Amino acid sequence: MAQRPYIVGNWKMHGTRAMLSEARAIDRAAQRHMKVEVAIAPPYTLIHPIHREAEQIVVGAQDCHHEAEGAHTGDISAAMLADAGAKFVILGHSERRQAHGEKDALIRAKADAALAAGLRVILCCGESEETREVGKAVAFVKRQLKASLPEAGEELGDASERLTVAYEPIWAIGTGKSATAADIAAMHGEIRALLVELYGDVQGNEIRILYGGSVKPENAAEVFATPEVGGALVGGASLTADSFMVIALAAAETEDS
Ligand code: 13P
After folding, report:
1. Ligand 1 atom closest to Cα of 95?
2. Are 80 and 118 in contact (CB under 8 A)?
3. pLDDT at 193
4. Do β-strands 37-41 and 6-10 pair in parallel, antiparallel, or remain unpaired?
5. 214, 238, 243, 246: residue to mutate for ligand 1 pocket, most atoms within 8 A of CB
6. Which pTM was predicted?
7. How far is the CA of 206 from the centre of ligand 1 (A)?
8. I want to staple 245 with a disulfide (CB 3.0 to 4.6 A). Which of 29, 96, 134, 220 is the partner?
């Protein structure tokens, strides 16, 4: 059975307690759109306050350390996130790969740590403009995913429950450029084939593949109508309930049509 569309707000480094009212508004609106799973990944400092109040939305984090505890000043473990109320963690975002030099092996170690702490994982992938221009986008993304996704097996359990993949072409984030529906469908189709190869027919076909290249109220309906798009990882447009819920509603309407 197909899973509900998954609409996740990545607040990045935005939000103080003044944003709690926005989270409340998102939570209230999400209660009216039960056909869609709505989630927010706020900065660490807001995970617990949002979790404590939320009735419908799920709260997650934007990163975690790959070890359970230790002398890692400034880092945070998956178990601490779970303790604060997080249910998932975004890993391998291009901003962390670029600004913090995170490599695939580290991202896989983080994914294993997150799963061990009971969190679900949203694993990000995506190519740069240069890679796309030389025609290597598909090979790059597949290699990235193969090296960073957790391995199938007992520890992972049901991959479709525990894993989500987010395709975020770097060249379409904050650049004003956008991928066409054909670009998105082609890449998501390739990712689907890889997931089936890695996790088998049943689970590989159920894992949701989110699109995350600057999804906005204006392009959401087109994105959700694209084959193999199971939701969205939304940056800037998730910072207000008004714009974020237009996107969630577009996903709900695609389910109806
Ligand atoms: P924007 O939606 O702000 O372009 O960000 C996309 C993204 O990086 C989501 O993780």
Report:
1. 8
2. no
3. 98
4. parallel
5. 214
6. 0.97
7. 24
8. 29
The Å distance, Cα 92 to ligand 1 centre, comes to 13
In the 8-state DSSP scheme, what is residue 9?
A: E
> Is the pLDDT score of 255 beyond 80?
no
* Per-residue pLDDT, 178: 84
Q: Is 168 a catalytic residue?
A: yes
pLDDT reported for residue 1: 55
d(CA 219, CA 205): 25
Which residue minimizes the CA distance to atom 7 of ligand 1?
235
Q: If you average pLDDT over every residue of the chain, what do you get?
A: 96
Neighbouring residues of 66: CB distance < 8 A, sequence distance ≥ 6: 106, 109, 110, 112, 113
Closest CA to 234 of 116, 90, 132, 49: 90
Q: Can you list the pairs that 150-157 forms with residues at least 24 positions away whose Cβ atoms lie under 8 Å?
A: 150/108, 150/111, 150/112, 150/115, 150/121, 152/198, 152/199, 152/200, 152/203, 155/112, 155/115, 155/116, 156/115
Looking at the predicted structure, is the pLDDT value of residue 197 above 80? yes
User: Ligand 1 centre from 95 Cα, in Å?
Assistant: 10
Active-site position among 37, 93, 95, 188:
93
pLDDT tens-digit readout, 132-169: 999 999 999 999 999 999 999 888 899 999 999 999 99
Residue 3: pLDDT band (50, 70, 90) is confident
What spacing in Å lies between the alpha carbon of 213 and ligand 1's midpoint?
Answer: 6
Give the tokens for residue 72. Answer: 């890692």
CATH architecture of 6-256: Alpha-Beta Barrel (3.20)
